[in-house]
Write a structure and sequence with these properties.
Elements: H1 7-15, E1 18-22, H2 24-32, E2 38-43, H3 52-66, E3 70-75, H4 79-82, H5 97-104, H6 107-111, E4 121-124, H7 126-129, H8 134-141, H9 146-150, H10 153-160, H11 167-183, E5 187-191, H12 195-207, E6 214-218, H13 243-251, H14 258-265, H15 270-281, H16 286-302, H17 304-319, E7 328-332, H18 338-344, H19 351-359, E8 363-365, E9 370-371, E10 383-387, E11 391-397
Parallel strand pairs: 2-3, 2-5, 3-4, 5-6, 7-11
Antiparallel strand pairs: 1-6, 8-9, 8-10, 10-11
Helix pairs in contact: 1-2, 11-12, 13-16, 13-17, 14-16, 16-17
Family: Belongs to the class-I aminoacyl-tRNA synthetase family.
Pfam families: tRNA-synt_1b
GO molecular function, one term: tyrosine-tRNA ligase activity
Length: 398
């Protein structure tokens, strides 16, 4: 595939949804040269779903792919065992091989909704990291000092609060950095909270006698509650959500995030997004603009036909007065039984009432547009329920 040097496309690539680029002029010059670059993105399977927040970096990877560059996707089946400490104020639990395998089950199925995996180099970092000898690992860790690691923002905060930092957490940036050596990366993409790890890649490449990669960090996407989108907080919009569920969740996004979602999560041209921003500033009803946002996002992951149907379903269900905009909200935990949550939160009086309603098809999942028929229904993501004829409950899953 021929590499495009279209200056306008390159400038959009370097600016749309990017937080920081190191080194910007070097990368721009390389993109304009027509040389095919190797663009690296690593994803750890720490959970089974890829949500819109994680898809931001994948979409940026696709932008490089569309210009004709070689994209290299690294599935961190080895690094997931340790867990990335980026932006974490406590140690991640180490994952067992069985859990990682389970999380990986639908990963490529999800990823191919964003990038063309037939033209992508896919690597699993256990291929090289699991084979490292003690001496090879020692050589790698020699790239960094304890003082360097201790200056990392979240580590520094933990030290100041008297919280533990485990030595294994110091290993993670070095291991991610070695991935760049293994695949000979010219550029690495990551979230803004990944900056320390991405720069570690440059350090490791230099120590191993390779040229240092350029770095691009993408903007962080907030979830439905305004906090960073995170599976552990249950505020995610998964790219595997049904079209109806995805549409409903996007409509729940806070109004001040509409333009950011258009920029990071849709293919809408920037000039059109600017026009929508002007409309919002002129006090056009944000709900009308958000309807377009939900449609554009659902169209990417489910196609135009299902996007139109989800829009029609939302209008029929929500805008025609069947569901109030304000409703009861409770919290639940992932894999917790729905019946237990409803009883514990006093939405229902007892387990017997739960079973009676289930048997009578009296509990309706509005996102999936179907009744709950399983008395042992587990929570996997946020859900909006209609209980009986008039009661509506939103459950946020953490």
């Amino acid at each position: 595939m021929k590499v495009s040097t279209d200056e306008s496309k390159i400038d959009e690539l370097l600016t749309r949804g990017t937080q920081d680029i190191f080194i910007r002029e070097h990368l721009r010059k390389a993109l304009l040269s027509g040389e095919q670059l190797r663009i690296k993105l690593g994803i750890d399977p720490t959970g089974p779903d890829i949500h819109l927040g994680r898809a931001v970096a994948l979409r940026k990877l696709k932008s490089f792919q569309d210009l004709g560059h070689k994209i290299v996707l690294i599935i961190g089946d080895f690094t997931a065992k340790i867990g990335d400490p980026s932006d974490k104020l406590e140690k991640r639990p180490m994952l067992a091989d069985k859990q990682i395998k389970k999380n990986l089950k639908d990963y490529l199925k999800q990823i191919k909704k964003v990038i063309d995996i037939s033209k992508c180099e896919i690597q699993y970092n256990s291929k090289w990291l699991a084979k490292m000898s003690y001496l090879e690992m020692a050589r790698l860790l020699e790239c960094f000092t304890v003082q360097q690691m201790s200056k990392r923002r979240n580590f520094k905060e933990r030290l100041e609060k008297g919280k533990d930092i485990f030595v294994v957490e110091f290993m993670y940036p070095a291991l991610q950095g070695y991935d760049s050596v293994a695949v000979k990366a010219d550029v690495e993409i990551g979230g803004f909270d990944q900056l320390f790890n991405l720069k570690a890649g440059r350090t490791v490449q230099k120590r191993y006698g390779e040229k240092e990669q350029d770095i691009m960090t993408v903007s962080m996407l907030e979830g439905t509650d305004g906090r960073k989108m995170s599976s552990s907080w249950g505020n995610v919009i998964s790219i595997l959500d049904t079209a109806d569920n995805m549409f409903i969740k996007v409509m729940a996004v806070k109004d001040n995030l509409i333009i950011k979602y258009f920029t990071l999560c849709t293919d809408l041209p920037l000039f059109e997004i600017s026009e929508l921003k002007n409309k919002l500033e002129k006090k056009v009803n944000p709900r009308d603009i958000k309807m377009k946002l939900a449609y554009e996002i659902v169209k990417i992951y489910h196609g135009e036909k299902k996007a139109k149907l989800a829009e029609a379903n939302f209008i029929n269900t929500f805008q025609k007065g069947e569901i109030p905009e304000e409703m009861e909200e409770i919290a639940g935990k992932r894999e917790e039984l729905l019946g237990d949550v409803l009883v514990k939160s006093k939405v229902l009086k007892s387990k017997s009432e739960w079973r009676r309603l289930v048997n009578a098809s009296g509990i309706h999942d509005l996102g999936n547009r179907q009744s709950i028929t399983d008395p042992y229904f587990p929570l996997t993501s946020d859900i909006i329920l209609k209980i009986g004829k008039k009661r509506f409950v939103k459950i946020s899953v953490k």
